[in-house]
Design goal:
By secondary structure, the protein is of the alpha+beta class. The protein has helices spanning about 20-25, 60-70, 100-110, 135-145, and strands at about 5, 10-15, 45-50, 75-80, 90-95, 120, 125-130.
Length: about 150
């Protein structure tokens, strides 16, 4: 499963290569707008790619046209609703409100003791036992698809 990094949060998460990136980010509680419903026409889910663009699915014509229409450089941005991550090493920059909400969640949980056992929402694997320290690594695993 591919792993991406989200800046300026400095977190890494696993994403599904089978799904569009927008769905994996939504699962990780990174809420990006997609006013067109993920059809690739509004451009509200565009993210800047800092590194690893070659590890993303090829850009189709619709995505290129939409990025041009919203005045985003197609060599620097991708529409998350039209893009899949095929390999590790992609670094995105969150330049919207989504990173603020996630940062607040991390700040409240990180380096605190878990009040209950915390399980991964998809796999059901125990991530942290009740009374144990919630670390950055545990939070990243919680946000990952697997």
């Amino acid at each position: 499963m591919p792993r991406i990094k989200l800046e300026p949060l400095g977190i890494s998460i696993n994403v599904s290569a089978k799904n569009r990136l927008w769905r994996s980010l939504k699962h990780a509680k990174v809420e990006l707008a997609a006013t067109c419903g993920g059809q690739g026409t509004c451009g509200t889910c565009a993210l800047r790619v800092f590194d690893g663009a070659s590890s993303l699915s090829p850009m189709q014509n619709l995505e290129q046209v939409t990025l041009k229409n919203i005045r985003k450089d197609a060599s620097l941005y991708r529409l998350t609703c039209q893009t899949s991550v095929v390999d590790d090493g992609v670094v995105f920059y969150l330049d919207n409100k989504a990173d603020k909400k996630l940062a607040q969640i991390f700040a409240r949980l990180k380096n605190r003791l878990a009040p209950l056992n915390i399980y991964h929402p998809i796999t059901g694997a125990l991530l942290v036992q009740e009374g144990s320290l919630i670390t950055q690594e545990i939070l990243e695993n919680l946000l990952s698809d697997a």
